[in-house]
Amino acid sequence: REKDDKFKIRMPKLRIVKEYKEKMKIDDDAERNMLKFKKSSEEKSKKMEKEEKFFREKFMYDKEISVINTATAECSVPSTRRVDLPVTAGEQLDVIDVTEGSAVICRNSKGRYGYVLVEHLNFR
């Protein structure tokens, strides 16, 4: 071991300019954020697909899902059943379909579907 230490060639450390080093760090952070964004959008799309599948099964909805109108929730309403959509005051909802009676099928920003009473909505 002592012989190896004696004959070991020592390479000088290259000094990196501070500005270049900071630029590399910024680029690396931007790349990490991009990867996080991709991952979160993939997770979100998978969750949206799962919610849509659940919606089609529960509501027996065969038509194409298209937004008829947008509405804002006037007050917060918790859901009593799984098919009801819990809403908070001021939340933006996409109206998907009109049903018989005083309820409409809506979708919230998280991609969840459910019935909401027309009384609780403010249409533009």
UniProtKB/TrEMBL annotation:
Location within or outside the cell: Membrane raft
Taxonomic superkingdom: Eukaryota
UniProt name for this protein: FYN-binding protein 2
Alphabetized UniProt keyword annotations: Membrane, Phosphoprotein, SH3 domain
Signal peptide: none
Domain Helically-extended SH3: 55-121
InterPro entries: FYB1/2-like (IPR043443), hSH3 (IPR029294), SH3-like_dom_sf (IPR036028)
Keyword Endoplasmic reticulum recorded: no
GO biological process: integrin-mediated signaling pathway; protein localization to plasma membrane; T cell receptor signaling pathway
PANTHER family with a match to the protein in the record: FYN-BINDING PROTEIN 2 (PTHR16830:SF1), SH2 CONTAINING ADAPTOR PRAM-1 RELATED (PTHR16830)
Name of the coding gene: Fyb2
Subunit structure: Interacts with SKAP1, LCK and FYN. The phosphorylated form interacts with LCP2.
A GO cellular component annotation in the UniProt record: membrane raft
